[in-house]
């Protein structure tokens, strides 16, 4: 599961990509302008940006240059109709990590995203084991002691967040920002309810939960 920002002013393209990536278990948001994208990346954590070149007012390349100059280090995949070698050079030299031209195949786009997210600064195996729990982040499956655990989408997203960041605290707001859409009306109560359901499914009766809740700090998956 990744939280992805699509910066694209063509609503049909943006929504098509969003629907496909959401179907794969990602949280995906759309910005129709570079200016809107600038505000979003300042306010919310993302794992990757999909960026069009031809945006109103500030172009995608202009946004990218400003983002990199300000220290922005998220992977950026340019998705654009500009297909000349010169255009690709400009896009990549401006700080893009990958470049795909339109028209494109959604499965190739998804594969490129997975490749970017496997790079050293975000690399982690697709199968992660902690205690008797195992998650496969590609198949989006969970087993406990070798037996399948059926999780709802948000329950799985929570568990993957903790598996990817063991021993790190997340307060309610941080969890909402990473797992729920920024415009969602979900609140702290939603986090608590979802967390309670998740714990009930993954905990072992009679043992302390693998996910700790420390007042004033938040939740963490404790492995040490």
Supply database-style keywords.
224 residues; alpha/beta; Rossmann fold; Arc Repressor Mutant, subunit A; 2 domains; five-stranded parallel sheet; four-stranded antiparallel sheet; 8 helices; 40% helix; elongated
| Percent in strands | 15-25%
The major pleated sheet works out as: 5 strands, parallel
> For the terminal residues, how far apart are their CA atoms?
24 Å
Percent of residues in helices: 25-40%
How do the helices and strands follow one another from N- to C-terminus? Answer: EHEHEHEHEHEEEEHHHEE
**SS elements, strand count:** 11
Largest beta sheet: strand ordering: 2-1-3-4-5
CATH fold topology of the largest domain: Rossmann fold
C-alpha geometry:
elongated
The chain-level structural class is alpha/beta
Mean pLDDT, rounded to whole units?
90
Over the alpha carbons, how many angstroms does the gyration radius reach?
Answer: 19 Å
What is the name of the CATH class of the largest domain?
A: Alpha Beta
Q: Pick out the low-confidence regions.
A: none
Tally the helices: what do you get?
A: 8
Query: How many individual domains?
Result: 2
Q: What CATH architecture label of the largest domain applies?
A: 3-Layer(aba) Sandwich
